[in-house]
Amino acid sequence: MRWREGRRSQNVEDRRGRIGLGGGGLRLGGGGIVLLLLAAWLLGVNPLQVLSLLAGGGSETMQGPDAGAGAPAGGAPADEGADFVSVVLADTEDTWSALFAEAGSRYDAPKLVLFSQLVRSACGMAQSAMGPFYCPLDQTVYIDLDFYRDLRDRFGAPGDFAQAYVIAHEVGHHVQTLLGTSEQVRAAQQGASETQANALSVRLELQADCYAGVWAHHAHRVRQVLEAGDVEEGLGAAAAIGDDRLQQQTEGSVVPESFTHGSSRQRVEWFSRGLETGALERCDTFRG
Question: Can you give the pTM of this predicted structure?
């Protein structure tokens, strides 16, 4: 993927090496965190309360868009991995700004927070094991760059475009928030059965995959970012994190009713549709 000459986003905040980072934060290494939580447990203190205090808050989660406001930014990312994320985020900003403008709307870009191990978002505390995620309450993408190592080594999906696909998928959730799709899905999930709610979640995730493809389509058409093998990398990443493949790896069996993101085939299909057409209207996963 051709990215080194790309614009860097101003919407990246580097919180790596900090716990939680609410109104303040404490820098600790991985060993320090483990020892701290172990000590809390031995003393009969809820470890979550300790994490909350270290994060500068009085509770484990914050329920509003101002959660984490005033947190000191970590400064401009200096390492290559963070630099890459900054370029990809900037490219999504340019692409979606142009697409929204064509539709007579304004695109308000999301923030992106780099973190390690634990982070406080407006959606609550999260850990790296959850993988990258988007929080609609603060309109921010959160990612621990160690996930890319897992994507390569554990899931067998190497390559820079595979990494870009992950960011573009999370930005796709931001697009859904701006368009009102996410709110509609959450409303429909209220009172629905678990199977029905999961099915709606799958449709939401597959649409984000399609939007990731839409971004790649226009980014390459305008800025020629793709190189030989990049499309295969992106499709490989989409397939690698399908619910069926993950369930087979971790549980040894597949339960389609419990899917929340879609099968490998579905994820590849919808990412490919967006990549080939570049059309948002072709990303209606809720029809039918």
Answer: 0.80
